[in-house]
Amino acid sequence: MDPSFTAYYVAELPLQSSIRNFLERQRRFQRNLAVVSSGGTTVPLEKHTVRFLDNFSTGRRGAASAEYFLESEYAVVFLYREGSLRPLQRRLAKLVTDPVTVLVSEGHIKEGVASFRVTADAQAALVQYERALKEERVLEVPFCTVYEYAQYLELIASASAVFERNAILYMAAAVSDFYLRFEDFKSHKRTSDSALVLKLSCTPKLLDLLRELWAPQAFVVAFKLETSMETLHERAQLTASRSGAHIMVANLLHERHHRVWILENGRMEEIECPESDTEIEKRIVEAVIASHRCYLDADR
Ligand code: PMT
């Protein structure tokens, strides 16, 4: 990897030993593992960061998918952008932002107090997540910058290699394609006395390193985001063959939460879920798990 990129790496990542202990525990219990990356990465322009480049990702795809992997008894490492949506929390956050979608009125007011219960869906998610926590089947790892993301991904993917075919690497994070070379990185706030001209370099294709180096036997699910239908399928195919990903989920920015295409073995299948219907992540995870089972069976 380019030394100007890895120059940002820290000597020891804060959750290094928790990650190793977590993975060892899952191995002892012979659980299948899903590593879910989620949310957008930042590219800071200064060390004492005042300004940074960011992207649109909310983390919904990753957080919802992590819940469905947990529901299917997978152990989950959730590598997520600090402040983006997290499993379960994304539902409870609606108690503040959109309460009528999670609360149902009991229909009566007693001594001036109205009572509400959470919807059956939210209750089921709460019970599910509480069980996963009790079983120590989920570990959340926050990142902010593209460098932290890359360093954690390398650590987690390499430590998952012992799971061989039993690990799914589900790469839903929106990774910055460009970064600022370490030699151009400023320590303190840039002045605004003149126009700011930045030359950004290409971020290493981390996806390609998963099968090439870090976890060659893992089942890799990648995502391809475009803003135009004209380029989507072709670019998804190119990225899939370059990286060796087993499944490529292609989506368009503006309709990503109700329509995707799943590309597998050269075949493209469309999944569409209207907003009010089943969450699209449930359908994606079901398709991924079904293909992962075939991948495991092919080895027996
Ligand atoms: O978070 P939401 O708001 O719910 O939105 C979900 C999503 C649109 C972010 C998600 O569905 C999605 O498409 N994620 C991938 C976005 C992206 O980075 O696309 P890409 O075409 O630039 O990258 C393709 C794949 O390579 C991705 O799996 C990405 O994680 C990976 N990548 C990209 C660049 C890079 N240098 N290294 C990588 O590993």
UniProtKB/TrEMBL annotation:
Residues 112-265 form the DNA/pantothenate metabolism flavoprotein C-terminal domain. GO terms for biological process: coenzyme A biosynthetic process. It holds the Pfam family DFP. It comes from the Eukaryota. GO terms for molecular function: ligase activity. Keywords: Ligase. Gene3D superfamilies: CoaB-like. The keyword Ligase applies. Belongs to the PPC synthetase family. This is Phosphopantothenatecysteine ligase. It comes from Cyanidioschyzon merolae (strain NIES-3377 / 10D).
